[in-house]
Task: structure prediction
Amino acid sequence: MSAHNRIAVMHGVNLDQLGRRPAAVYGDITFLQLEQRISAWAEELGLKVSFFQSNAESEFVEHLHNLDGLADGILMNPGAWTHYAWAIRDALEIADLPTVEVHLSDTSQREEWRHASVVRDLCIATVQGKGPDGYREALTLLRDHLESA
Ligand code: DQA
Result:
């Protein structure tokens, strides 16, 4: 029997470029450093994380299709896809796993077009505007959710 502690961490479009994006919005953490922090937090919380990043929407969708039996929860920052990528929303619905949506920045305080999220209502929670620490909060929420399931 699985321990229900497998989290698929999915970074969407342009997240691999962290460190080169506007520091005033995203901080100066690099993508590698972010994944290292997530790994350390996951270990503290007793979670097993697998990482995926793509700039191709089709690959992101196919990764969601292929999670069946391989993950117990999803931590997702879809980047700009958050705001309009309905195919990702449909794929998340198919994956049917507890999901937390994370954004480094507070999208509600930025341009109007960033206020919408096509995945939000499928997620158990959204954490945004907390920088890298938001990923820790998201992992904790997933851990608590999976423990109580
Ligand atoms: C982001 C916010 C999105 O609006 C933006 O397109 C990103 C990153 C964030 O983490 O703050 O690429 O998801």
Summary: The helical segments are 23-26, 31-45, 57-65, 86-95, 133-148. The longest strand covers residues 6-13. Residues 14, 77, 79-80, 82, 103-105, 107, 114 surround DQA (CB under 6 Å). The beta strands are 6-13, 48-53, 73-79, 99-103, 125-128.
